[in-house]
Each structure stands twice: as C-alpha cells, then as structure tokens.
Amino acid sequence: MNINLCTGRLAALAILSIAATAAQAKDGNPLTDMVRAANSRFENVAAATAEGYAPIPCASGITGGAMGIHYVNPGYLKDDAVDVAKPEAVMYEPMADGTLKLIAVEYITSKGPASLDGHLFNFNSAPNRYGLGPFYELHVWAWKGNPTGAFADMNPNVSCDAMKGM
Questions:
Q1: Helix, strand, or coil here: 148?
Q2: 3-27 vs 30-39: helix crossing angle, rounded to 10
C-alpha cells in the first residue's frame, strides 16, 4: 500500500473521529443520546398513553420557562427502579396547533441518593407541589435544548402558553 493512500485513510479517520466527538459535545453529555435512543417511541403521545402514562397539568416556572406537560406512569413511579428505557415521566410542550411535542423525560425515585450514568438526581423534600413524599429526580432535556443545562428542572425555552386557549 502506498504512503499517500495510508495518509489519506488516516486523515479520513481523524475527520470522522472529530465529527463524532463534536456531535456528542452538542448535547454536552452522552446520556442525552442514550435517553433519545431508548425513548424515541414517545415522540407520539399515543405511545405514552398505551404504556400507561397519564397527563398532569403543564408546569411553569415562577421566574419563567416551564417543564411542560408531564405524562406520568404510576407503576414506574411506585417501583423506585431507575431504568433509562422506563422513565417515570415523559414531558411534552403544548404547541399552538394543539399538538404535543416531546421535549424531555424525568426519572424519579424515593431511594437515594440516586444517579443515572454518573449524573446525580436532585432531591425534593416534602411537602411539594406534586403531593409526593420526599423524592429524587433527574430531568433529561434530550429533544429540546436547554440553555440552563441538559439536566436542569426548568427550561426557559419551554412554554405552557398554548394551553391557555384550550
């Protein structure tokens, strides 16, 4: 094999490696890619309801932004297991045309401290606005970018405003 051909192949491999690293850095963490791969079936809200998820009202932040409408699976909420493919809540943003757009998932457990792929869950004490006992939760903004972080609770780019007319 001649040296020019080897050099060309090495350069191509280097470019592919750089592109893969850049794609991973886009989300800031490989966990968002893992969550998207495991839960893309929920892009259609009918898949969530078919799996036992039910909606709770759209959650807005006091200082702006929102978490969207949570579709919660009561069975997963009770089992305290943390499984990337079985989030306790699937989150949707209401759109002006009445549709719901998948934006994130939330993992919830009462056993902690908890983590998923090295990311520590946030602790929520009781009483809380959900009427739950103390719990640990981790949001993963896998479908909609969040300028405050891929694992932050609220997303300033999400709104519940489309619900006002419904």
A1: coil
A2: 80
Secondary structure (3-state) at 2: coil
127's tokens: 């009483």
The two beta strands, 135-140 and 122-124, are antiparallel
Q: What is the pLDDT of residues 128-159, one digit of tens each?
A: 878 889 999 999 999 999 999 999 999 999 99
| Residue indicated by tokens 């006002």 | 164
Handedness of CA 142, 147, 150, 156 (dihedral sign): negative
State the alpha helices, DSSP H only, in the chain: 3-27, 30-39, 45-50, 74-79
Residue 24 carries which side chain, given as an amino acid letter?
A: Q
Q: What is the pLDDT of residues 61-72, one digit of tens each?
A: 888 899 999 999
pLDDT digits (tens, 9 = 90+) for 17-27: 333 333 333 45
Closest C-alpha to 72, from 131, 159, 158, 151: 131
